[in-house]
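The instructor's notes for this session suggest beginning with a concrete chain rather than abstract definitions. Hand out the sequence below and ask the class to guess, before any prediction is shown, which regions might be ordered.
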Amino acid sequence: MITQILPIIKDSERLEDRLKEIPQSPGVYLMRDSSDRILYIGKSKKLRNRVRSYFRDGKNHTHRISLMIQQIVEIEFIVTDTEAEALALEANLVKQHQPYFNVLLKDDKKYPYLCITWSEDYPRIFITRKRRLGKAKDRYYGPYVDTRLLRNTLHLVKRIFPLRQRPKPLFKDRSCLNYDIGRCPGVCQELITPEEYHKIVQRVAMIFQGRTGELIDILNTQMEKEAEALNFEKAVVIRDQIRGLNSLNADQKVSLPDDRVSRDAIALAGNNQIACVQIFQIRAGKLVGRLGFIAEIPDLGTAENQELGAILQRVLESHYQLVESVEIPTEIIVQNELPEGNFLQNWLTEKKGKKVEIFVPQRQGKAELIEMVKKNAEYELLRLAKMSDRNNEAMTDLAEILDLPELPHRMEGYDISHIQGSDAVASEP
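After discussion, reveal the predicted structure:
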C-alpha cells in the first residue's frame, strides 16, 4: 500500500521541523509536489525567513501563490555565499526546470539583438534574433522592439566609424573599395592590429550601451588634442563622427525635470496568455533604447499588482545579469512595487559600485513616463495578438487542407537528393 504524502502545510510538526533545518543564509529554495515536480524556485538573502513567509499571513498571498502552497510536500534549499550568487543560481535553475508557478520569460524570435563577437581578433557586429551564449566574451545588446531603428542605427554607425563591412573578404590579396574610401580599416588584409580595432569597436559598443553622450565627450577631448597638435585631418574625421552621433537621437528628447540622471523605466501590458514588458532606456534626457520582453504566467488576466511586480522583477533581474556595470542606470522607475525590490536594489548597487534607486514614481513627470511606456507595451501586445490570430487562422486552413484531426504542433521537412535514383541522401532543413 502506497502512502500519499500530505501537503506540508497540513502537517504543522513536519513543517516546523523543516523550517528549523533551513539556515538564515543567502541561497535558493525549491518547492516540490507529491510527484517530485518542482513547483517554484526562489532566492533570498535569508532563506528561513523567506520560506517561512509562505506559511504565514495567507491573506496577503495572491491566488497563484495560495494555490501553489496547497501542493508543496517538500522544500529543498541550496546555500550560496552571497546574494549575487543566489540570484545567478536562481536564474539558471528557473531556465533549466521552468517551474509552473515561476514567471517565465519567453525566449522566442520576435525581438532582435545586436551581437558583438568580442571573442574574435576582429569582432563582427550584426543583428540576430537568436541569443547564443556559446562564447563567454561575445556580448548581446537588447532585445530591441524597434527593428527598423536598430537597423538604421547600425547602418549609420558603420558610416561614422571605420568598421569591417563584409563577413568575408572580397579579394584574397588586396583590400576592397571600402578601405579606399575610409569605411573599413583593412581588416581583411590585417592592415590594422586587433588591439587598435578593438578600440574602435569599444566606442561603437558605448552607443548600444546607452553611453553616446559619454562617447561624444571623449571624442570632443580627442578632437581638441588633435587640433592643438596641428593634426587637422584627424580632427576633421573626429568632428564628423561627433556630428553623426548627434544625429542618432536628435529627435528623441524625453521631457523630464532632471536630464542629467541616467534612468530606465519599465512597464507592462498583459492578457490571459502573455505579458509584453518594455524598458525605456533614457540617458541625458534622451530615449536611447527601447527593449522588449515577453513573460508567461498562469492566469495573467486576473493578476494582482503583486503579480505584476513579480513579472517586472523577473525581467529586471534577467536583463541586468547580462549587462556590464556601466550600463546599469542610477535610477529605475517601475510600474508596480517589486516583491523583492530591496534585494534587487542592493545587488545592482554592489554591481555598479554606485547607489541605484528603484521606485514607483509619484511625481507627474516620471509618472507620465511610466504611462508612456505602458501605452507602448499595450500597442506591442495588440500587435502580437493580431500576429497570433493570423498564425492560428493559417494553421486552421492547413489542417483543413490536409484533413488533420487537430491543429499541427510540429512540421518537418526533408530534402532528398539522388543520382538517377541511386545514392539517395536526405537532409532536414
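Then share the key points. The chain has three domains: 8-102, 113-248, 263-381. The mean pLDDT is 83.
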